[in-house]
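sorry to bug you again but im stuck and you know this stuff better than me. theres a chain ive been looking at and ive put its sequence and its fold in token form underneath. id like you to explain what the token line says about the fold, in plain words if possible. anything you notice is useful, everything is just below.
___
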Amino acid sequence: MAVPDRRTLDILLTTLLFAVVLATVYVARGVLLVFAFAILLAYLIDPVVRFLQDHALFFRNLRGPHVLEAYLAFLLFLVFAGHALAPHMTSVRGKLFETAPSLIEGLSTGDIAESIGQKYHWNEARTSRLRQFLFEHRDFTLNSVQSAERFASDALAAAVVIPILAIFFLAEGKRMTDAVIQRFFAESSQQEVREIADELNMGMKAYIRAKVILAGLSFAFYSVAMLLARFPHAVALGALGGALEFVPVAGWMTSAAIIITVGALTHSHWIWMAALLGLWRLTMDYFISPRVVGHNLEVHPLLVIFAVMVGAKIDGIVGIYLSIPFIVVVRVLWQKCVSPSLASPPEALPASENH
């Protein structure tokens, strides 16, 4: 039996290692998503930490105390905001818990069509069509409720873990990057790898800047639309919608569900609001977001749409969330590694000797 040579064995082992890494990433994609959100949170808080560090009277050379200050400021803001909204939100929350089971039952059976038809003075034929439509989609409604319950429990657990992980990235991110470079790269190439890491860092900051702009636009739209529709707590709900803009797909779906539920419970114009939310989502996904992200990352908006669609096809929410950072990595590696080699002139061939 012939034994493969050394080069063939190296190729086989490299291919096997690459396959194992891909399989591990796919299996552990949930954990990787939690770490990705922690990195995102760290990038969001980092400007505040740097501001506190630059204007500090004490511990200016230490990063840890200022990370703690930023977290304490954020917690105090949540406490004061909750205290300001608590008297108004308590009644809505109690009403939500009381009426949510009957509302879900009415949607699944179609009985809610009667109350909607009476409120908007529909005729019997239109009310019957809505009742039949809701009843035919009963399984979808119940599955959506179960998915929302699972998402709420997972989101609650992530809300505890992600800020803790972000502390490590904020306090030790630079040291961890240097340790990885020194451990896995030769000394002759460490400087080049550090330059690539700096470019990736700048690309991620640009991506976060784009997300902040999109969150601000969503906050403005939600607040103005709900104020015009006479929704209660319009600004608070708008702030929630803007914050959830950082969570792909599930974020805006959660915002829409909360806004529509509050509108239905408070007898606001929730049907018109649902139509406005759908129109805003289409505008955001196919017009505003690709242009804002593309402008900040210096890529074409069509490439942003393509990457998001491919990511969604590969692995849903995880693929959507990681698609744009993947573009950042590919762009930096192309500019630093591939593009210079393509742009360099070919080496001159030695002149042939005359015979």
